[in-house]
Every structure is written in structure tokens, then in C-alpha cells.
Write a structure and sequence with these properties.
With about 425 residues, the chain is α+β, with helices and mostly antiparallel strands. The chain is about 40% helix and about 15% strand. It has 14 helices and 18 strands. The strands form seven sheets. Strands 5, 6, 7 and 8 form a four-stranded antiparallel beta sheet that branches. A four-stranded antiparallel beta sheet has the order 11-12-13-14, sandwiched between helices. The radius of gyration is 20 Å and the shape is globular.
């Protein structure tokens, strides 16, 4: 099963954004540690990109919890978003965008919130939280004492970044470990496979499901394995891999269902923990090669992944290399939601692929998305194919991945060196 269905989530974002005319929330606290970072003319393009990305985090961090909003006008966050914020903050510090005191205060506040945030069924982090209060939210974004389930994909991403803190910065190890120990892993892994949880909106019944999907599944399982919680089946990158031909490039899709093949899990894996199996590195290279093949054969600059967008009707889209028999298909969060547009060159994907594989093609895409920067706000989702006009719509996840990419570019290696086997 692909990442949790976010139709209602992104519809709510769209409504709030439209009501606010996509303007910045003037009541957001200034947690930037001083004057907001403005890229210095002449600064290295990677550092300038990182500084622009950091403005989003600085502008949108809530003083009460230390959590950043996922969008300027939307205060609810997933565990995935929280992990992105940790990654953004860690990377900003390592790049020298923020100083030691600013960094320490931010990380300790986030960890403190994660230590006390209520858990769904006392077992795992809920799907959504209010970034201002740290309380669980329901599926319709109202305060909830019970929540409505969990995603082991999202939790796996958080586990990766908690491990980064525990290993690379021992001063945070005890607190990061205590947060991990809050989780009931016996409910998150069953039969060697990651297990998600939903609540039936009509009956309230708990519904457990295998959270599978080539790419995202291996990425998330890597996070669990870093804490000695092995989901053996989910770690296996070849057991359910089925070969498909995309413009002359052999890629692999999940034979069990309808999982999308896109850039996201492979670039995050490369930036954060490395491709821990040869098949994962091969797949990453193939996913990139298929995108270059589209440019070579059709003349369309291509960098695809998932992004929040300003475009109706869904406002969140998956742009996939392959999905359910279709190549380079754009869909809303639900299945059966194929649309012709929007089609865009993703900012975060272009930064990440350029950092991981510095080729002539990734340089071309990297240069193409520079127009997506929004001074004083962050990075938009990208630029539209064809016109190359910027999309707008800065987000936390875009900011986080651009900062991670800049750090990888500087160091030439993943953030964490702990092996996964």
C-alpha cells in the first residue's frame, strides 16, 4: 500500500490556502534566531539554495511545540513532516546556516514534544498532529483524544532521523532512544512485514494492513532496522520486483499491487542512509535513467516525484515514472485520479538527483528549477514543464530535501554511515 491516502488532507490545505490568498501567516512566531536568513548575492548556489529552504522552516516553526507547519497556511503535520523538519534542521546546522545555540534549542524542543505527544492506542504516533498544540488530530482535522491510525512508512522516516541524532550527536541519544522506546514494535511489524493501522470511520474498528510498496517499503524498513527492529520481508528489495520497460530502460515495480514508482524513496535513501542493497542502487539509477530517456527522446525536461501544488482539483499529486500500466502519469492521492496536468519539474527531486548523480542531465534539471525559489519564503514545488514558469507553493518537505541535498553535495556521502544488512 502506497503512502496514506491524503485526499482530505490536501483538500483542507487547499481551502485554507485559498482563504488566505496563499499569503504568509503574519501571526507565526519568529523562531529564526534573529533576522530571517536572506541568501547573499554571490553565495554558492547550493548554500544559497539551503538558505532559501531554511527560511520556510524559520518562518513556520511554532514556539509552543518547536514543530513547523507543513505549509504557511496549514498547521497540521504528519510524522513524515516532523522527520523532514529534523532533517532540515540538522542539515542547516551542519551547513552553517544556523549556529550551535539556535540548533540545540530547536532540536531539544522537537524532541521534548515527541517525548510527550500522545500515541494512537498507546502504541504508535498518530497520522496527524496539530503543530501548535502537539495533540492528535482526527481525519477531519479536529482535536482528538483517540486519533485514527498510524503509518509505518511515516514512522520509518522518523526512526531514521532519530537514529541520525542518536549516533552522530550523542548529546541527544538518550532522548531520541526514549522516544523510540515509546513505540510498540510488536504491533508495527508482523510476519516480517511493516503493518499500518486505520480506523473504520463508520464503526471505529481497528483495521491492520500490510504497508507495502517497492521503494517506500524498503526506505521505511531501513529506519526500523537501524533500531534493531527488522522487518525482513519489507527489507527485501527483490522478492516482489517485476521488470518493466520504460522508454528502453528496465525499471522494477511491485508485483503485489498498485504501488507507484517515483523518485521520492530512492533519493531519500541515497541522501540519508545509502542504498543498503545493490538492487536499491540499481533501481535508483534506473529511475533516473528513465527520466533522462524521456528528455532524450521527447525533449521534455523531466524530474518526477510527489509534491503539494497550487493546482486543482487535488492540490497534491504523484508524478510517477510508472504506475498501473502507465508511464509518466500524474495522479491525485487516490487511485483512479489520473489527470493530464499539472506536470512539473520538481525542485526537491532536481536538487537530490544532482547531489547523488552529478551528470550533465542532472545539471540541466538543477538549473531549470532555480526559478522556483521564493525569496523570504522557501522553495516552490518546482517549475511547470514546457513553460518553465515557477509553481509557487513552498512546503516543509521541499525545504527539508533541498537542505539534505546541499549537505550531501558538500560531503559526498549519506548523513548516516551505520550499515543495514
Amino acid at each position: 500500500m502506497q503512502r496514506f491516502n491524503l485526499i482530505r488532507y490536501w483538500s483542507a490545505i487547499a481551502l485554507v490556502a485559498l482563504l488566505a490568498a496563499c499569503s504568509k501567516d503574519s501571526t507565526a512566531p519568529d523562531n529564526s534566531g534573529g533576522t530571517p536568513v536572506v541568501p547573499n548575492p554571490g553565495t554558492d548556489v547550493w548554500l544559497a539554495g539551503a538558505q532559501t529552504a531554511w527560511t520556510f522552516v524559520a518562518n513556520n516553526t511554532q514556539a509552543s511545540t518547536g514543530l513547523a507547519k507543513s505549509h504557511d497556511t496549514f498547521q497540521f503535520v504528519t510524522v513524515w513532516d516532523i522527520a523532514s523538519q529534523i532533517g532540515a534542521t540538522y542539515s542547516a546546522h551542519e551547513l552553517g546556516v544556523i549556529d550551535d545555540a539556535n540548533y540545540d534549542g530547536r532540536i531539544r524542543k522537537i524532541l521534548s514534544t515527541l517525548t510527550t505527544m500522545p500515541l494512537f492506542d498507546g502504541a504508535a504516533f498518530n497520522r496527524f498532529y496539530d503543530s501548535q498544540t502537539g495533540q492528535m488530530a482526527s481525519a477531519d482535522f479536529k482535536p482528538s483524544a483517540t486519533g485514527f491510525g498510524w503509518s509505518t512508512t511515516d514512522i520509518g522516516r522518523l526512526l531514521i532521523w532519530l537514529r541520525v541524532l542518536a549516533v552522530n550527536q550523542p548529546q541527544y541519544s538518550a532522548q531520541a532512544t526514549a522516544i523510540v522506546n515509546r513505540l510498540n514494535f510488536s504491533r508495527l511489524i508482523s510476519g516480517g512485514t511493516l503493518q499500518g493501522m486505520n480506523v473504520d470511520p463508520n464503526t471505529g474498528a481497528r483495521v491492520t494492513y500490510a504497508e507495502t510498496g517497492l521503494g517506500y517499503e524498503q526506505y521505511a524498513a531501513g529506519g526500523f532496522a537501524l533500531w534493531s527492529q527488522r522487518a525482513t520481508n519489507s527489507l527485501n528489495a527483490t522478492a516482489y520486483a517485476q521488470a518493466k520497460n520504460v522508454l528502453g530502460v528496465t525499471v522494477f515495480v511491485d508485483s503485489r499491487g498498485t504501488a507507484r514508482l517515483t523518485s521520492e524513496p530512492y533519493i531519500m535513501m541515497g541522501l540519508e542512509i545509502g542504498w543498503y542493497a545493490p538492487a536499491l542502487r540499481d533501481q535508483a539509477q534506473a529511475v533516473l535513467a528513465a527520466q533522462q530517456a524521456r528528455y532524450d527522446q521527447q525533449g521534455v525536461i523531466t524530474m518526477v516525484t510527489e509534491d503539494a501544488m497550487p493546482d486543482p482539483p487535488y492540490y497534491f499529486y504523484y508524478y510517477s515514472v510508472y504506475h498501473s500500466g502507465n508511464t509518466f502519469v500524474v495522479e491525485g492521492p487516490g487511485y483512479g485520479t489520473i489527470v493530464m496536468n499539472p506536470r512539473w519539474v520538481s525542485s526537491k527531486a532536481a536538487f537530490a538527483w544532482r547531489a547523488l548523480f552529478p551528470t550533465d542531465y542532472t545539471l540541466k534539471t538543477f538549473n531549470a528549477v532555480q526559478a522556483a525559489a521564493i525569496p523570504g519564503d522557501g522553495w516552490g514545488a518546482g517549475v511547470y514543464e514546457g513553460s518553465m514558469a515557477p509553481t509557487g507553493y513552498a512546503s516543509l518537505n521541499t525545504a527539508g530535501m533541498i537542505l539534505e541535498s546541499a549537505l550531501y553535495h558538500q560531503r559526498g556521502q549519506p548523513v548516516l554511515s551505520q550499515p543495514i544488512s
